[in-house]
Amino acid sequence: MKRNALVVIVVMCSLLAPAQRKTVEDDPHWREHTVQNAFDEVSVGMYYSWTEKWLARMGDGAAPEVMKCLSAKPLTKQNIETALTLVKMSFGFPRLIRHDQDRTPTNTLAFLDYLDKQSSDADVRLKIDSVRDELRARPPAMEPKKNSNN
């Protein structure tokens, strides 16, 4: 009797465990930490492929976090260029973007407009225009990659 009850409990627990599986992206601070780490890595000229992969999953969701990072730093040419690199990385692989709403660069275009107004450097403004044009020229939102082992 005890053995049957134990078997039932083990089977039920093993069936419920996958349903409760959480991903890193379920952490409410995941985006903030990912972007902050990426900003730090890119600003020194070196980043890891994992950083690129995690940013590529964010799409438009990265823009508010990049804005937070940038607002905590002086608005220098290097920091703006780092922010532009993060924006490009966040849309680098559109099929990896997890959420439908993040496939359209709404926040990102507003962020680029903000940067454009804040910058007085002609070279930086050309780079901002280039990134903006790239995002606008993108094809319509694509379906996410079906493989969950990204």
3D structure, described in words:
The protein is an all-alpha fold. The protein has one domain. It is built from 7 helices and no strands. Helix 2 packs across helix 4 (62-71) and helix 2 (30-43) packs across helix 5. It starts with a helix and ends in a 13-residue tail after the last helix. The model has no long low-confidence stretch (mean pLDDT 84).
Q: Mean pLDDT score, rounded?
A: 84
Count of helix runs: 7
The protein's oligomeric status is single chain
Q: Estimate the global geometry from the Cα principal axes.
A: elongated
The number of E-state strands comes to: 0
- Share in β-strands: under 5%
Element order, helices and strands?
A: HHHHHHH
What is the distance, rounded to the nearest whole angstrom, between the alpha carbons of the first and last residues? 44 Å
Low-confidence stretches: none
Helix content: 55-70%
- Secondary-structure-based class equals mainly alpha
Described by strand count, sense and barrel closure, the largest sheet is:
none
Based on CA atoms alone, the radius of gyration comes out at 20 Å
- Tell me the count of domains: 1
Strand-helix topology:
Layout: H1 2-16, H2 30-43, H3 49-56, H4 62-71, H5 77-90, H6 106-118, H7 122-137
Brief characterization of the structure:
With 150 residues, the protein is mostly helical.
Label this structure with key terms.
mainly alpha; elongated; 150 residues
